[in-house]
Design a protein that fits this description.
Length: 98
């Protein structure tokens, strides 16, 4: 609960300040690279906090929602179309019908 509250409360404000700084130092699609790094980092932290990794990924999206361009949203849509079937297969494989 604490992990979710901290990221939800301060994540967006932090990213609004951090994204322009990091983007100026990265070449190419800096915002998208930062978004992917934050996504995997928060997913990993969520796992260590004892919640599902998808909660961390969702919180990364919330934190970045106000600070990224429309282009990052387009890239994220493409990635989600690629990875969603893998997520659903993982959920299906963990289902025990007995």
């Amino acid at each position: 609960i604490g992990f979710t509250i901290v990221v939800a409360k301060w994540g967006s404000r932090t990213m609004v300040r951090l994204v322009p700084r990091v983007e100026s130092r990265l070449v190419g699609e800096g915002q998208f690279t930062l978004a992917m790094v934050l996504l995997f980092a928060l997913a990993l932290l969520a796992q260590y906090a004892g919640v599902a990794a998808i909660i961390g990924a969702f919180l990364a999206g919330m934190a970045l929602s106000e600070s990224t361009t429309h282009r990052v949203h387009d890239f994220a849509a493409g990635i989600s179309e690629l990875l969603t079937p893998f997520f659903l297969v993982g959920i299906g494989l963990s289902l025990d019908l007995q």
